């Protein structure tokens, strides 16, 4: 499932989460620390993965989750979320269009009662 990560979405997340770190919102600050443009919040990406999965599987509920980030996800990038069932859990991979993996993790799910 593809999702365009926009500056507007990141700005909205920054307000709600109260994480207004400049590397998420300001091009100059991001460039100063070595990025081409602002980076998405890790918690935004993890929450988005959960939301996308549950939209496709509304009868399920996520009980546990973990995610490891290999690289930052730059704003104004298309993120590709891939979900696979493995040993009763859901493995999630977040990549960019080049195929480079940004993050990976696992959800435990159960059916809603």
UniProtKB/TrEMBL annotation:
Transmembrane segment boundaries: none
Q: Which InterPro entries match?
A: HotDog_dom_sf, MaoC-like_dom, UPF0336/Enoyl-CoA_hydratase
For this entry, list what GO says about its biological process.
fatty acid biosynthetic process
- Name this polypeptide is given: MaoC-like domain-containing protein
| Gene3D superfamilies linked | Hotdog Thioesterase (3.10.129.10)
Pfam entry (one):
MaoC_dehydratas
User: Any idea where the MaoC-like domain is?
Assistant: 3-91
Q: What GO MF annotations does this protein's record show?
A: (3R)-hydroxyacyl-[acyl-carrier-protein] dehydratase activity
């Amino acid at each position: 499932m593809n999702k365009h990560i926009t500056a507007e979405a990141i700005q909205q997340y920054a307000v709600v989460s109260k994480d207004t770190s400049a590397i998420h919102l300001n091009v100059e600050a991001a460039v100063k620390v070595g990025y081409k443009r602002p980076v998405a919040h890790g918690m935004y990406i993890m929450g988005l993965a959960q939301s996308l999965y549950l939209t496709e599987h509304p009868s399920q509920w996520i009980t546990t989750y973990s995610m490891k980030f290999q690289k930052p996800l730059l704003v104004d990038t298309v993120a590709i979320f891939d979900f696979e069932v493995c040993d009763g859990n859901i493995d999630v991979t977040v990549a960019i269009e080049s195929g480079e993996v940004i993050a990976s993790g696992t959800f435990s799910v159960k059916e809603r009662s």
